[in-house]
Input
Amino acid sequence: MRRLLPAKASAPAIAAATTIAPHVRAVLAAVGEDPDREGLLKTPERVEKAFRFLTRGYQEDVRALLNSALFSVCYDEMVLVKDIEVFSLCEHHLLPFFGKAHVAYIPKDKVVGLSKIPRLVDAFARRLQIQERLTVQIAKAIQEAIRPRGVGVVIEAMHLCMIMRGVEKQNSVAVTSCMLGGFRDQHQTREEFLALIRKKHNGMI
Ligand SMILES: [Zn+2]
Output
């Protein structure tokens, strides 16, 4: 069976601290720049630092993250964390895509600490991704950790690789969803989830 949650040990090893910068310098030269001019002198190191930050999800142990905050409860209504900021890099162009994630589940006997849901989203988003896979990975991680009655994940995002290259209109948003269990089988559950996502904030609620 395919592993859905790579353990820390199977994540790509962290390369030595200065392996990205020399390549960035080569890219600068390749596009016709002078890597030695003042404004670009520190750019390779800056880009390396940025890329390490933007791909730090590879170092996250998703299973440990969720297992550290599982609680037994008698609660079987929908839990929803919506409008979670998502920043990721498309694996085809290494350009950002960003937007909002909405994550819901219906517990069976366990819940995940609420603050872990945005961290889970981040752990998968801070890797080279495609939006479809990111959506499924988040849903399956929750499914595997607490075996709930159902999980629903919707991500709405804008992709700079589409917008900047003029592939799509400026404001087009890509929407992906992954529905498991009750969210897939029960029309009413799915509709409740989608209605809650659409509901705009009005004060606290
Ligand atoms: Zn792309």
Helices lie at 21-30, 43-54, 62-67, 116-125, 131-146, 160-163, 182-185, 187-198.
